[in-house]
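User:
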Amino acid sequence: QLQLVESGGGLVQPGGSLRLSCTASGSTFAAYAIGWFRQAPGKEREGVLCINNSGGSTNYADSVKGRFTISRDNAKKTVYLQMNSLKSEDTAVYYCGAALVLCGQASSFRSWGQGTQVIVSS
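Assistant: Predicted structure:
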């Protein structure tokens, strides 16, 4: 299992940009798929984007298509979530999780970070 830590959250105006980082330690990072999920108050956790061990990405949410991009730097053991054209609906706690090899259902992610808060002001 990996130890994951999210960072980069904060307050941003609508239309602005933010880059989140998920930094891993404790295992072979390159073998894992890393997914970004988010949970808004009163709502279920939803998948955003995931990147597999080969660098292929999976989009879980149509609402972020064309606005968010996921990437990974295996040398730094870090996955990034670049968020552009942010909307108030993007306000949530953002979590990264690790799954073995493939991006799949949320249940396949067995390691999670503590989350980082993103607030997009009205």
